[in-house]
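Q: I'm building a small set of examples for a reading group on sequence design. Run inverse folding on the following structure and report the sequence directly after it, with nothing in between.
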């Protein structure tokens, strides 16, 4: 399914989004750090065929949206506000919010900002408390190289922009990533590095929208312990264990089925999961209810 690419102005900047399908049941998806909205194109097409209006948003500094150079333009709270800006622009009163990594944290920020407009949350590989050390180790060299190695990075970006985007989705996403000017990319990293990465625990435990969390056990930047922690913090959450970070991209059938079932629940197409229970679904698809324990 070919999307309709559109844009709107938010706080003086142009933000670009793709729209799949139509109707009142909206789903808004955000990509991972420095990736473009194309990341969720296959999932958006599947959901649109089921009658949902799916919006894939390039956050500021990502994809085709504006990329201002100053780091003050970038923070998780700013990104959360951009999701609400898109909803305001389109007159959407409520939506299921979702994303991967940075996009997952953005969905949490948008819900913390105003959960009354959030029909549900799809949280794939959140980056929370247990990921902070690994993120510092992984992204500090990248931030330094983009800042002080800008001439080399710009030369690589010029070459990458000449390569046709005709390959697999992951290859195209990688080329789009390399094609970006390094200065705004470094500013995105700096803005996130020196700010909060997600709503803190005190805010997360107050979030009530039903939530599907997808985590996997083989990535220190997206540790499974963060996904499991979020499971026990959020009312009405359940956790699906992916086999790897690539499952939803290369073999999406199982996880896409879980996502479709969850979004149907959020919009009342199926019987909703009890709100005061959490569940964990393993890679074989079996679910075990986990009684909620929360200290207030």
């Amino acid at each position: 399914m070919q999307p309709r690419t559109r844009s709107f102005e938010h706080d003086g900047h142009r933000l670009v989004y793709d729209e799949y399908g139509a109707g009142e049941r909206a789903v808004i998806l955000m990509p991972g750090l420095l990736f473009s909205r194309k990341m969720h194109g296959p999932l958006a097409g599947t959901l649109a065929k089921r009658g949902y209006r799916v919006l894939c948003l390039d956050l500021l500094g990502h994809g085709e949206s504006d990329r201002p150079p100053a780091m003050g333009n970038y923070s998780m709270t700013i990104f959360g506000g951009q999701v609400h800006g898109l909803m305001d622009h389109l007159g959407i009163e409520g939506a299921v919010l979702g994303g991967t990594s940075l996009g997952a944290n953005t969905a949490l920020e948008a819900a913390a900002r105003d959960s009354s407009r959030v029909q549900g949350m799809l949280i794939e590989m959140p980056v929370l408390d247990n990921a902070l050390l690994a993120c510092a180790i992984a992204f500090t060299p990248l931030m330094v190289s983009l800042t002080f190695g800008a001439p080399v990075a710009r030369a690589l970006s010029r070459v990458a922009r000449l390569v046709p985007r005709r390959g697999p989705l992951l290859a195209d996403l990688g080329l789009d990533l390399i094609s970006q000017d390094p200065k705004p990319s470094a500013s995105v990293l700096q803005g996130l590095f020196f700010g909060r990465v997600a709503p803190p625990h005190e805010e997360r435990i107050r979030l009530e929208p039903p939530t599907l969390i997808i985590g996997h056990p083989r990535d220190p930047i997206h540790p499974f312990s963060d996904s499991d922690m979020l499971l026990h913090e959020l009312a009405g959450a359940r956790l699906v264990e992916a086999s790897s970070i690539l499952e939803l991209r290369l073999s999406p059938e199982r996880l896409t089925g879980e996502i479709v079932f969850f979004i149907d629940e959020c919009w009342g197409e199926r019987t909703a999961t009890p709100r005061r229970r959490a569940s964990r679904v393993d890679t074989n698809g079996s679910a075990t209810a986990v009684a909620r324990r929360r200290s207030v």
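The two ends are 46 Å apart (CA to CA).
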